[in-house]
Amino acid sequence: MNDMDYKGLPELPPERRWRRQIYPAPIVVALIRRQFRRPEAAGLAPHYLLIKRKDNPYNGQWALVGGKWDFGETLSAAILREVKEETDLDASFVAVRGLVSERVVPPRPKGQGAHFLIFVCDVTATRGDAEEQEEGAVDWFTQEQIEGLRETKAIIPSDYAMLTSFAGSQEAVPHVEAEMRAPIGGAANDPIQLQRFERIKGLDLLSE
After folding, report:
1. What is the domain class of 6-174 according to CATH?
2. Rounded distance, CA 167 to CA 165, Å?
3. Using CA atoms, how far apart are residues 32 and 122, in angstroms rounded to an integer?
4. Contact by Cβ (8 Å): 82, 69
């Protein structure tokens, strides 16, 4: 496989895939905004919360808060758990703002490739102060400061793109939670029941 050929990712052998993944890994990331007063200017300015990753492959890079969507969780539970784990903030789910299929090819021969399905979630902090946890330092940034991170290559490029594409958007991606009782791996004559098919509305507006 040509290491820069995205079309060849499906043929990449398991030992050259991130954590030997078979399917795209579901990831949740959070757009977390607060208004802070800037000493040099009148009024309030929006700041966005980022985390400085400690682990490879993005060690030392600033990124959106988030992580793996665990088996059996609802989407809102997954993103609020990740926010709490990485920042110690309590938050409320607002909406899904975007869905990103991110394919990663290795920059060097014999490197690992990866594929992530990223759910970009709008959340609002409801209680607490953002504090560093095991995953890395956290801090609030203005849009101008985020542009500075991009210029110095200090932020993961796709996270920068997601933030600038979806932050401040009021357009919600339809989000439905479905729950089934079905005989997966069981007897074929067991009943199949749809127990929940609910569109999740979240919050109507961001808290200013």
Report:
1. alpha beta
2. 6
3. 7
4. no
Strand partners, 139: 50
In tens digits, what is the pLDDT along the chain, a chain of 208 residues?
444 578 889 999 999 999 999 999 999 999 999 877 655 555 678 899 999 999 877 899 999 999 999 999 999 999 999 999 999 999 999 999 999 999 999 888 788 899 999 999 999 988 888 999 988 999 999 999 999 999 999 999 999 999 999 998 888 999 999 999 888 776 667 888 899 999 998 775 443 3
As a whole number of angstroms, the distance between CA 175 and CA 164 comes to 21
**Angle at 99 (CA atoms; ends 64, 66), nearest 5 degrees:** 25
Residue with structure tokens 């991606």? Answer: 173
Q: What are phi and psi of 150, to 5 degrees?
A: -65, -45
How far is residue 195 from each of residues 177, 188, 191, measured CA to CA in Å?
10, 19, 12
| 126 close to 105: Cβ distance less than 8 angstroms | no
Report the DSSP pairing between strands 114-127 and 62-68. unpaired
